[in-house]
């Protein structure tokens, strides 16, 4: 730390200690929300409250909120991302940035004219970045973290690391070393830190960091090999598909035209040229018995004789009638 900054911070701390200021630490997360709670709240003995911020880089002091009981609240500066809770006398900060880090002082003025000070040190927890260094057959990733954390986890392509001896963690899990590199190690790594309900993460894709290794690996060689031909082949296949569709539509169009032309012409029927065979003559066997109930008797007095007669009897009767 430069000498000037160190002197300013020590002077600031000495001011607090010499004045008998109580203090506490609060950790927020980048782009998150945090509440700096008032020590005495909405007490009937309180006459007014002042919230002031001291920068961590220098000893400059800025008055933020001025509260005069019962309900007079005035925002002096830095009100864009701040609110005030009158019931708890708390200062609420949201959408935190690194500029919000520092020491906040609550000055409570009581009705008996006594004054008490409480300071709150706000620090942000966030994983700023991941640095990568490589050596033959090995890879080292280090997670750069600001603030205090309770848990740090590493992910590869969004999944927790497998229980593999190739992965070793040091420096409170902030540094991870991968040995015996394979093509599967060319992936996206995530460093996630958390503290109570706060979580922050940093991410890096090492395929763009150690390009030589990833392209020389089995997977990298395959990708590098097919990449020059992948797009031309895709466009050629697409063009062939479009051409086939056009040919199908053309064939269907001309097929419909031929059907319509053929339907408008009169059909021509060809006479059969083969000789039809004549039907064979059927042979009829002569009857030897004739049913004669239909023959009218010549004599009216002659009774009808129904029954059956032979051919010869019928023939004799016919000859006799012709003779008479």
TrEMBL record:
Record keyword Transmembrane present: yes
Domain (Ig-like) ranges: 118-207
Pfam families documented for this protein: I-set (PF07679)
UniProt signal peptide: 1-23
Keyword terms of this UniProt record: Disulfide bond, Glycoprotein, Immunoglobulin domain, Membrane, Signal, Transmembrane, Transmembrane helix
Top-level taxon in the UniProt lineage: Eukaryota
Transmembrane segment boundaries: 229-250
Keyword Kinase included in the entry's annotation: no
Name under which the protein is recorded: Ig-like domain-containing protein
Species the sequence originates in: Ameiurus melas
